[in-house]
Amino acid sequence: MRLPITLAIASLALASCGSSDDADTDGDGSVSADEIKAATAKVKPLEAGQYKMNMELVELVDPTMSEQEIAQAKEFMGAMGGMAPPRCLNEEDAKKGMVGVAEQLQNGDCNVDSLTSNADGMQAAMTCKAAGGDAKVSLASTSTGTASEMTMTAIEPSEQGEKKVTMKVSMTRTGDCT
Protein backbone atom coordinates (compact mmCIF):
# COMPACT_ATOMS: atom_id res chain seq x y z
CA MET A 1 0.00 0.00 0.00
CA ARG A 2 1.43 3.38 -0.89
CA LEU A 3 2.33 5.46 2.13
CA PRO A 4 0.53 8.60 0.82
CA ILE A 5 -2.82 6.78 0.88
CA THR A 6 -2.22 5.59 4.44
CA LEU A 7 -1.17 9.11 5.46
CA ALA A 8 -4.23 10.57 3.74
CA ILE A 9 -6.40 8.24 5.80
CA ALA A 10 -4.74 9.37 9.02
CA SER A 11 -4.76 13.07 8.15
CA LEU A 12 -8.41 13.02 7.16
CA ALA A 13 -9.20 11.33 10.42
CA LEU A 14 -7.40 14.01 12.39
CA ALA A 15 -9.87 16.54 11.06
CA SER A 16 -12.66 14.02 11.60
CA CYS A 17 -16.28 14.34 11.07
CA GLY A 18 -24.10 8.93 9.16
CA SER A 19 -25.49 10.45 6.22
CA SER A 20 -28.53 11.34 4.19
CA ASP A 21 -27.76 14.19 1.80
CA ASP A 22 -26.07 13.49 -1.52
CA ALA A 23 -23.39 16.10 -2.20
CA ASP A 24 -23.83 15.80 -6.00
CA THR A 25 -26.53 18.48 -5.95
CA ASP A 26 -26.46 19.16 -9.68
CA GLY A 27 -26.84 15.45 -10.49
CA ASP A 28 -23.98 15.36 -13.01
CA GLY A 29 -22.46 12.19 -11.54
CA SER A 30 -19.39 13.84 -10.04
CA VAL A 31 -18.76 15.76 -6.84
CA SER A 32 -17.21 19.18 -7.48
CA ALA A 33 -15.01 21.17 -5.11
CA ASP A 34 -17.94 23.46 -4.26
CA GLU A 35 -20.19 20.45 -3.58
CA ILE A 36 -17.52 18.91 -1.31
CA LYS A 37 -17.21 22.15 0.63
CA ALA A 38 -20.99 22.49 1.03
CA ALA A 39 -21.36 18.85 2.13
CA THR A 40 -18.59 18.99 4.72
CA ALA A 41 -19.99 22.25 6.11
CA LYS A 42 -23.11 20.30 7.19
CA VAL A 43 -21.13 18.10 9.59
CA LYS A 44 -21.21 19.14 13.24
CA PRO A 45 -17.73 20.50 14.03
CA LEU A 46 -15.80 19.43 17.08
CA GLU A 47 -15.84 21.89 19.95
CA ALA A 48 -12.62 23.66 20.87
CA GLY A 49 -10.68 21.84 23.57
CA GLN A 50 -8.21 19.09 24.38
CA TYR A 51 -8.74 15.78 22.52
CA LYS A 52 -7.42 12.28 23.04
CA MET A 53 -6.88 10.43 19.79
CA ASN A 54 -6.88 6.69 19.26
CA MET A 55 -5.91 4.98 16.01
CA GLU A 56 -6.48 1.33 15.18
CA LEU A 57 -5.38 -0.74 12.21
CA VAL A 58 -8.53 -2.82 11.77
CA GLU A 59 -7.50 -4.85 8.73
CA LEU A 60 -4.39 -5.25 6.61
CA VAL A 61 -4.21 -7.52 3.59
CA ASP A 62 -1.06 -7.31 1.51
CA PRO A 63 0.17 -10.22 -0.62
CA THR A 64 3.70 -8.77 -0.51
CA MET A 65 3.86 -9.08 3.29
CA SER A 66 4.26 -12.20 5.40
CA GLU A 67 1.76 -13.03 8.14
CA GLN A 68 4.47 -12.08 10.63
CA GLU A 69 4.98 -8.66 9.00
CA ILE A 70 1.21 -8.02 9.03
CA ALA A 71 1.02 -9.01 12.70
CA GLN A 72 3.94 -6.67 13.48
CA ALA A 73 2.26 -3.80 11.62
CA LYS A 74 -0.97 -4.34 13.56
CA GLU A 75 0.95 -4.57 16.84
CA PHE A 76 2.88 -1.39 16.05
CA MET A 77 -0.26 0.54 15.14
CA GLY A 78 -2.01 -0.77 18.24
CA ALA A 79 0.82 0.42 20.45
CA MET A 80 1.07 3.77 18.70
CA GLY A 81 -2.69 4.31 18.58
CA GLY A 82 -2.97 4.90 22.31
CA MET A 83 0.27 6.87 22.54
CA ALA A 84 -0.76 9.84 20.43
CA PRO A 85 -0.21 13.06 22.37
CA PRO A 86 -3.30 15.04 23.31
CA ARG A 87 -4.35 17.47 20.61
CA CYS A 88 -5.52 20.98 21.37
CA LEU A 89 -8.20 22.13 18.96
CA ASN A 90 -8.30 25.92 19.24
CA GLU A 91 -11.35 28.11 18.50
CA GLU A 92 -10.10 29.02 15.03
CA ASP A 93 -9.59 25.38 13.99
CA ALA A 94 -12.92 24.39 15.56
CA LYS A 95 -14.75 27.05 13.52
CA LYS A 96 -13.25 25.62 10.31
CA GLY A 97 -14.97 22.31 11.00
CA MET A 98 -14.77 19.98 8.04
CA VAL A 99 -13.48 22.65 5.64
CA GLY A 100 -9.96 21.26 6.17
CA VAL A 101 -11.17 17.82 5.13
CA ALA A 102 -12.84 19.36 2.08
CA GLU A 103 -9.53 20.93 1.11
CA GLN A 104 -7.69 17.63 1.56
CA LEU A 105 -10.26 15.80 -0.57
CA GLN A 106 -9.75 18.35 -3.34
CA ASN A 107 -5.95 18.25 -3.21
CA GLY A 108 -3.86 15.31 -4.25
CA ASP A 109 -4.47 12.35 -6.48
CA CYS A 110 -8.05 11.49 -5.50
CA ASN A 111 -11.39 11.98 -7.22
CA VAL A 112 -14.49 12.02 -5.00
CA ASP A 113 -16.93 9.57 -6.58
CA SER A 114 -19.72 10.03 -4.03
CA LEU A 115 -20.25 11.95 -0.83
CA THR A 116 -23.20 12.15 1.54
CA SER A 117 -23.35 14.15 4.72
CA ASN A 118 -25.54 15.54 7.45
CA ALA A 119 -24.94 17.06 10.88
CA ASP A 120 -23.95 13.67 12.32
CA GLY A 121 -21.20 12.80 9.85
CA MET A 122 -20.37 11.86 6.31
CA GLN A 123 -19.68 8.96 3.99
CA ALA A 124 -17.54 9.12 0.88
CA ALA A 125 -16.12 6.96 -1.86
CA MET A 126 -13.04 8.06 -3.77
CA THR A 127 -10.75 6.82 -6.49
CA CYS A 128 -7.08 7.64 -5.91
CA LYS A 129 -4.02 7.18 -8.09
CA ALA A 130 -1.71 4.54 -6.61
CA ALA A 131 1.39 2.64 -7.66
CA GLY A 132 -0.55 -0.46 -8.75
CA GLY A 133 -3.45 1.36 -10.41
CA ASP A 134 -6.55 3.11 -9.14
CA ALA A 135 -7.19 2.59 -5.44
CA LYS A 136 -10.73 2.68 -4.09
CA VAL A 137 -11.06 4.53 -0.78
CA SER A 138 -14.17 4.70 1.36
CA LEU A 139 -14.82 6.52 4.58
CA ALA A 140 -17.59 6.61 7.14
CA SER A 141 -17.45 9.22 9.85
CA THR A 142 -19.52 10.47 12.76
CA SER A 143 -19.31 13.56 14.96
CA THR A 144 -21.13 14.53 18.13
CA GLY A 145 -19.32 17.82 18.67
CA THR A 146 -17.20 16.37 21.49
CA ALA A 147 -16.23 13.07 19.87
CA SER A 148 -15.64 11.80 16.37
CA GLU A 149 -14.89 8.49 14.74
CA MET A 150 -13.76 7.79 11.20
CA THR A 151 -13.25 4.44 9.52
CA MET A 152 -11.45 4.44 6.18
CA THR A 153 -10.70 1.56 3.85
CA ALA A 154 -8.32 1.69 0.90
CA ILE A 155 -8.17 -1.12 -1.67
CA GLU A 156 -5.33 -1.03 -4.17
CA PRO A 157 -4.55 -3.47 -6.99
CA SER A 158 -1.04 -4.82 -7.35
CA GLU A 159 0.70 -7.40 -9.51
CA GLN A 160 0.71 -9.80 -6.53
CA GLY A 161 -2.97 -9.27 -5.73
CA GLU A 162 -5.21 -6.82 -3.99
CA LYS A 163 -3.92 -4.78 -1.04
CA LYS A 164 -6.39 -3.59 1.57
CA VAL A 165 -6.03 -1.46 4.68
CA THR A 166 -8.80 -0.39 7.07
CA MET A 167 -8.09 2.12 9.81
CA LYS A 168 -10.29 3.57 12.53
CA VAL A 169 -9.45 6.87 14.21
CA SER A 170 -11.39 8.36 17.07
CA MET A 171 -11.08 11.62 18.96
CA THR A 172 -12.71 12.36 22.30
CA ARG A 173 -12.78 15.73 24.05
CA THR A 174 -11.16 15.47 27.48
CA GLY A 175 -11.49 19.10 28.61
CA ASP A 176 -10.10 22.53 27.91
CA CYS A 177 -6.69 22.98 26.33
CA THR A 178 -3.86 23.10 28.83
Uncertain segments of ≥5 residues (pLDDT<50)? 1-20
Q: How many strands?
A: 8
Our Rg estimate from Cα atoms comes to 16 Å
Seen as an oligomer or otherwise, the chain set is: single chain
Overall pLDDT metric:
82
Output the strand order for the largest sheet: 1-4-5-6-7-8-2-3
Fraction of residues in helices?
Answer: 25-40%
Shape: flat
The share of residues in extended strands comes to 35-45%
- Major sheet description: 8 strands, antiparallel
Q: What structural class is derived from the secondary structure elements?
A: alpha+beta
Element order: H for helix, E for strand: HEHEHEHHEEEEE
The first-to-last residue Cα distance is 37 Å
Helical region count?
5
Describe this structure in words.
It is a single chain. With 178 residues, the protein is α+β, with helices and mostly antiparallel strands. It contains five helices and eight strands; from the N terminus they run αβαβαβααβββββ. It has an eight-stranded antiparallel sheet with strand order 1-4-5-6-7-8-2-3. The protein is flat, with a radius of gyration of 16 Å.
Describe the structure in brief.
This protein has 178 residues and is of the alpha+beta class.
Characteristic key phrases:
8 strands; alpha+beta; 40% strand; flat; 5 helices; 8-stranded antiparallel β-sheet; 178 residues
List the helices and strands and how they pair.
Layout: H1 3-14, E1 21-22, H2 33-41, E2 49-61, H3 67-81, E3 87-89, H4 91-96, H5 99-106, E4 110-118, E5 121-130, E6 133-143, E7 147-156, E8 163-175
Antiparallel strand pairs: 1-4, 2-3, 2-8, 4-5, 5-6, 6-7, 7-8
